[in-house]
Amino acid sequence: MLADCHRLLDSRGLLLISVPNVANITVRLALLFGRFEYTERGILDRTHVRFYTSRTAREMIDRAGYEIVAEKVTVMPLELVLGLRPDGWPMKTIGRTLASHRLSLGRCSRLLFRLRETRNGESPHAAR
After folding, report:
1. Which of 19, 43, 110, 119 could form a disulfide with 74 if both were Cys (CB 3.0 to 4.6 A apart)?
2. Over the stretch 79-118, which tens digit does the pLDDT of each residue have?
3. Tens digits of per-residue pLDDT, 34-50?
């Protein structure tokens, strides 16, 4: 689908994409307990055809001939999911634990990217 967008963008055009983060802590915990159930909305929405991690989303973008101009994530409010007070010691402990960049992606439910076509139309990492 991303490859098809090349013909629609002019030379200054940007593409915005949003993909579900399957590495989210709620999906990981569900898998730990043997559950992988599709839902009506959210990360495991029935309409999602593919699931991504930060690495696999970047690989897809690269293979499609785009480069990332900016990126953001949407963070799931764990205190609501877990039913904990945000200022209580359990949430503060969880927050400190998830503070590292790698673990903070576990709180992210969506990966959002602003893309542009690579300058020469090829993947910037194709020579690697």
Report:
1. 110
2. 766 777 878 887 777 767 766 555 556 667 888 999 999 8
3. 888 888 877 878 888 88
Number of domains in the chain: 1
CATH of the domain at 72: 3.40.50.150
Q: How far apart are CA 61 and CA 100, in angstroms?
A: 25
Q: Which two tokens stand for residue 1?
A: 């689908």
The whole-angstrom separation of Cα 128 and Cα 22 is 27
Q: In this structure, is residue 2 part of a structural domain?
A: no
Structure tokens at 44: 């495991």
Residue with tokens 């969506």: 110
Residue 1 lies in a domain: no
> What is the 8-class DSSP label of residue 49?
-
Q: Is the pTM of this model over 0.85?
A: no
- Please check whether residue 3 lies inside any domain of the structure: no
If DSSP codes are grouped into helix, strand and coil, which group holds residue 67?
Answer: strand
DSSP run (H or E) holding 4: helix 2-5
